[in-house]
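pinned: reference chain
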Amino acid sequence: MMNFLQATDGVPQQGMGSFWVMMLLMIGVMYFFMWRPESKRRKEMAKFRDGLKKGDKIITAGGIYGVVKEVKEGETSILIEVDGNVTLRIDKNMVVADNTQLQK
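pinned: its structure tokens
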């Protein structure tokens, strides 16, 4: 009985080198088009959230528009005013946009 791996004597085989080159190219493309831009976006968003100060107009992940009323150093939450005397304490990670750039 003949093994399938031994039965390829007359058939030309592609080398494993071309397989690894293709795999490395795919990983390189994924890095430059997916991982790198996402990492850059995350760093910019973290910098924006760390730079929040009193009076900044923001939009939360839930679509709530507000003005930053209080930011305490070392805390992960901020206090925002949404209307009149209505204030909410939210996590800094839920701030997704600066509203001053969006409004004209």
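why pinned: The first strand starts at residue 57 and ends at 60. The chain has two domains: 16-50, 53-102.
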